Please model this.
Amino acid sequence: MKSNCIIKINFKGGIISPGDLYNILVTARRSGVRQVSFGLRQQLLMNVDPELIGTLEEDLQQLGTRYDLDNETHPNIVSSYPAEEIFITDTWLSEGVYKDILDGMDYEPQLKVNVSDSRQSFTPMLTGNINWVASTTALHFWHLFIRFPRTNRIYEWNEMVYTNDIPGISKEIESLILRHRAAFYDNEDASGDDLMHLIRKQQYNTKPAEKPAELPAFNLSYYEGVNKVNDKYWVGIYRRDEMFPVDFLKALCKLCLDTKIGQLCSTPWKSIIIKGVEEKDRPKWNQLLNRYQINLRHAANELNFQVEDNCSEGLALKNYIVKQLNNDDTRTFGMCIGIKTRKKSEVFCSILVRRRPLISLFGLEYLYVYDILCSHDFNPNARTGFEFSTANPKFVLGEQLRRLMIAFYNDRADKQAVSEKKLQAEKKEPEEKAAIPQVYQCSRCLTVYDEMYGDPESGIAPGTAFESITEAYACAVCGAGKQGHRKTEKSRLDLHPV
Model:
């Protein structure tokens, strides 16, 4: 029996028109598709019966909808726009900035492109091949990270690029990498400097980066539910099995259109977000969720998992681990746990559970064991850095992860203690310097003027600051002027009161 075909439809940056999605869902339903999902790169995924794939392809072509069939030829452009205005509020980025970039991408990339805000970690920053990270200091300028295809090698360019030039330079970088595959593709020794020397830099608006980009610590916001921001609401919907009923999504699209919401967003967490819900329309959204029995109260330690797309084995392993973590009441806040069951796949995570067979024979795998790996400083934007434990049987994964969580929180507590100690030291240092008694000594006869005692013989009262004394002041012993006195620490003179 032939397995189902997989149709993948890209929505640039995860931004979806409800009208376009509704038309796609109607054609999908006509081809027997009852459920769809959203992928790690914010795209729409559909499993289709091979006997009905022809009908669906014809319908999609009539709609003018581009798609990939059973391949990853055109990975979607990922963006942090779904988090804009709800998880990100203090940045120069806006909807218009994202759309300027996405509208300028007049080609279908063959390499992965990520466009990310620099102050959040809801969107993976460095999982692309061409990664743009917004500057925190220079408006409309972006840092560029190249992760060479099929390598763990990441290169940060020492130039920043202007917003409007991101599409053009992305296209040129992709062309150079694909044209010079031996140098830049599947080559751990690929040179970022060599690649950027080939760029026609004079055609773009760039400027030197003052310092390397600072990537934020991982902090995953709770991304489901009906939540208020300012005077409007946003709705986040997550599905435990990753599947969204077509009929539900069709009704959701209609509600968006009826309430004048022009877009919805898919996220890298395989969920969807609808922004801009008016107060008066909130009951309609509650009715929609009630009608289709959509649960919005999942545990936080279930939401911070990343599983490969279209992977029933990975999803089953995730559910198994979540159950173990719940049974042990294990805290997972601040962590992102990835599940990997395929050799060539990659997932965004600070902890990776990697399945591998003990025995492989004639293309078949037997007796799985599991390795647990961690990223550098537990930051999922860094690459997986070290192995915590290897060759674990499945039943010990919950306990091993619990121990790793303890190590993570101890590490975080130690770093916090060091940071607080350093901060206290910085606060005390100026106070200590200010407390050191100072005097003014005549450079000719070494007579001392002490502000504590003043100079009663010259009519200067105790407590008078030296700076406030008239410029006509002269040393009572040798007559040297005020300018002839130098400031020095009182302790160095070994003075004794008389």
Notes: The chain has four domains: 5-75+221-298, 88-208, 303-407, 438-493.
